[in-house]
Amino acid sequence: MGFKRWQLAFIHAAVAITLVPINSTLNRVMIKELGISATLVALLASLPYLFSPVQVAIGAYSDRHPIAGLRRTPYILAGLLLCVVGLAVAPMVVFILPQNFFLGLVFTVLTFGAWGMGYNLAAVSYLSLATELSGERGRTRTVATMWFLMIVGIILTAAGLSRLLADYSPEQLQRAFSSVAVVAMVLGLLGLAKLEPRSNIRSSQATLEVPASWAAQLRLIWRNPQARLFFVYLSALLVAILGQDILLEPYAAEVFDLPVAATTRITSIWGTCFLGALLAATWLEPRWGKRRVAFWGAVTALLGFALMIGAGMVASAHLFYVGVVLLGMGSGLATVSNLSLMLDMTTKSVGLYMGAWGMASALARILGSVLGGAVRDIILAISQNALLGYGVVFGIQAILLGVSIGLLRRVDVETFRAASQRLSLGTRVAMMQELDAG
Hints:
Blueprint: H1 2-17, H2 19-33, H3 38-46, H4 54-64, H5 73-94, H6 101-134, H7 139-164, H8 170-192, H9 204-209, H10 214-223, H11 225-243, H12 245-256, H13 260-288, H14 290-314, H15 317-344, H16 350-383, H17 386-408, H18 413-437
């Protein structure tokens, strides 16, 4: 399993690094250099996550319908291809926006949509495969390995982009994005090679436990109180932690007047701290427990937001970087512990529940990015003060972290599993009703 664990990590890193140029570099260029409103940029960056509900359908469908004996690999490959193509095309289409807004918007929506569909196809499939291959005892180690390599990939990608964009130009931006796309494709193919065991047997258990329609699948999840609570908890936490992605580099550019190469390095700093925290969480989980590690992750991230707000008030770039360090550490602690909790909660109907948790993550990005961009623009328009706009957004995200801490106390894995067991007969009935209706 050791080698397969690293293959899974290659796939996870491949998909993740396609996000780095789009969410860390391109958003800054669009807001600062191209003068596009943060609200529109947030809407475009969030567009891929509108496809998040399809994760539930993809996960459940792949549970029941293997292709050439493979239940996950075809979907991972298709998703990776869409991510790579979307990344390579993105710089070309966004530069059309200032010249021909309507045409540029159409091409940008199509490009970001292609990347988003690819992300959803790949993510739910490789997380489901990770759960199936690792087993319950090996899940924490699998999560740590996958996220370790992902963060290393993010750090190296951000550092490489920073060097490639030392002399910024649109042409250099295109070359940098294309380079990342090639690396992602190679990593993904290496990860997929002979990873999933081929089988000619369909999972009869999955067929019985997953209702036929998407609507019935969502009703199943919502009927489990712990699944519902965990969904809301994850959404609140991730709105705060992930919602800052679209604004962190523009904040550094507008408030501290940092150039493109410098703001791109912010991702490397965040990623290094995230990686250190992830390794620490792997050591802490057996001693503290997953919920306690998740708690301190949220608290640390909350302190990071507070420092970033204070840094703008005293015009201290150094204090801002300390806030980024704390945000990275908190995000790392929270991510690995919550992913371990998530995997503990998916022992049955793996694709279905993985799709639900993936949907929570995607919805959090949409809400965090769009609301953050809109709030920033509204406050800026009223006050003509960029610092105030960003400060209000970071303050809201800190409050959401406090809400997530309160919800975490009520999450219980054993209660979730018990509820899932009780619902298994109901899912069979639901499926028969769907078939009768058809």
